[in-house]
Write a structure and sequence with these properties.
The structure holds 2 protein chains of 2 kinds.
Chain A (H helix, E strand, L loop, with lengths): L1 H28 L3 H27 L3 H30 L9 H6 L1
Helix pairs in contact in A: 1-2, 2-3
Chain B lengths: L1 H21 L3 H25 L6 H24 L7 H7 L1
Helix pairs in contact in B: 1-2, 2-3
Classes of the chains: A mainly alpha, B mainly alpha.
């Protein structure tokens, strides 16, 4: 049983690391702000969620686990709000989403 | 295992920092800084487990909240040029 929990925690932490790196590459490579918001969402939900879940499995039932749950809850509340505010401010700031002709924008 | 996660989070922070320096708009930079803060929270949590002292989690909790407030404040400043602005709802109420 302890081995199963350990393996599950490793798998969650490694998958979370993978998603975090994916989002990092995405925020660097994607062509405009509104697509980069999507990459930021990947790291905030899957990356942070899976890494913190793996750490929770390592911590077991303790005060550390409760703190990790609090961190995860705050991240899940604040990161979509921050993403929404960035998109709203960008739209009010006259930043147009990239529509059509995707390949030419990709090369720049 | 924790060192792999710490390395991945550090690599992500480097990539995000490159985007924060490249821009091109101010919103890209703010998005990158917000994401950098989220990764910092993760890094603090992972480093606490890596060194066997998970006491750092309180710092991660506070950092996450301050990061959110900072992002909202910076965006409000760039959207309205005024941190005391009441926002759209107040304007709708006046008319």
């Amino acid at each position: 049983m302890a081995v199963a929990v350990e393996v599950a925690s490793w798998v969650a932490i490694l998958a979370g690391s993978f998603f975090a790196l994916t989002g990092g590459v995405g925020i660097l490579r994607l062509p405009d702000l509104f697509t980069r918001l999507h990459a930021a969402g990947v790291t905030d939900t899957m990356g942070a969620g899976l890494i913190l879940f793996g750490l929770m499995l390592q911590a077991g039932m303790s005060l550390v686990c409760i703190k990790l749950i609090l961190i995860l809850a705050f991240l899940l509340l604040t990161s979509p709000t921050a993403t929404h505010v960035v998109a709203k401010a960008a739209l009010h700031g006259e930043l147009k989403p990239l529509l059509g002709n995707f390949h030419s924008a990709w090369k720049t | 295992m924790f060192s792999v996660a710490a390395a991945a989070v550090l690599g992500t922070m480097a990539l995000v920092l490159i985007r924060a320096m490249l821009g091109p708009t101010v919103y890209d930079r703010i998005l990158a800084v917000n994401m950098f803060g989220t990764k910092t929270v993760l890094l603090i949590a992972v480093l606490g487990f890596l060194t066997g002292r998970p006491d750092f989690l309180d710092l991660a909790l506070v950092y996450g909240l301050i990061n959110f407030i900072g992002t909202i404040a910076a965006l409000k400043f760039f959207e309205y040029s005024d941190l005391g602005h009441a926002g759209q709802d107040a304007r709708r109420g006046e008319s």
